[in-house]
Amino acid sequence: MSAEGAATALVLTVQARTGNAASAGFVQTAMTLPYVLSGPVIGHALDRTGRPRRLVVALACGYAVAITLLMLSAGRSPLVLVLMVAAVVGCVEPVVVALTSLLPRFVPAERLSRAYGLEASSYNIAAIAGPGLAALVAALLGGAHTGIVTVATAALGLLVLPLMRIPPPEVRPERTRTGVKQVVAGGLSVLGANRVLRALTVSTMFAWFGYGGFAVAAVLLGQDIGAGPAAGGQLLACFALGSLVGALASSRWLTPTRSERAVIAGLLGFGTAVAALALVPSLPWAWAACVAAGLAEGPLFAATLMLRQRESPPDRLGQVNTTGGSLKIGASAGGAALTGVFAGRLGADGLMLGIAAFQFAGAAMWLWLSGGPPSTVSSPSGKRRV
Asked: What global pTM score does this model have?
């Protein structure tokens, strides 16, 4: 909830304190760009450590402290200082994505397809509650106080994590000296060598480059249709609600053989719904378009998790998952920065059309790069993993 609601809380906080929501795009960039390096490192460590709970709790502590400092300083302190604090958040927040890569340690192989659908829905529940609570606090207490939600939920999560029993990895690599290049680029080499993972990574990077500006665009859209900046949180919550329904539905019907088709359908559906936001005349229509966008994105996210697990070597799953997630979030950082530059010129409608265009570009890249027979990855036992 804290990580999913941070973008909304940050935009509303900066808007309330400075009157310029677009400048939050630069802070979002600083908060997400470090993922590109920190994600693979955290995933590599979780794939190998015999005591994963200690590492997870330590990273969660760092996140809770850093996000507290960010919400206190955003819009008040010099921008350089705020950007430095935001970068620290980006160094530790990938623990959220890394925890998802641990799912095969808890769930039998025959139930993983359903588990990944439910796991995707857990992100959506958090994405409903995080922005929704931020919007509620903004309406009741003012936008300057929305950071309360982000900080409080981070603290609650930190209290729960020590109670989890996280088993060590079943497949442990041999104890060999690992260089910095292998730690950072090991997951990237797997993503580049596998056709499906390569296509998935490139297409979702295009999609998330566009999505990086969605929080700012939602706030600006709320202003344009006369609902006020706090409506941006409502739109993000509607999007997350649609994603939740889509993810829960996918937990029933999505299988490894259907997941590749779910990617292209999700990208096209997401782009179409976001493009519709440029045409909505009122807030209820904007709610409906955001729900539709979420209905397309929910199965897309579940399919992404499933394909990463299906195509990754067992001893690299954590690193592949965090590397893929980090590249997506790094792309979204670039999109957030671009939003900060062009928000004043394009307005909400132009931003929404630009976001939609990147979804369609991602769909085109998927069709181009994923052509050919389905990929398989050899497991250590010599059997083909499908």
From this structure: 0.70
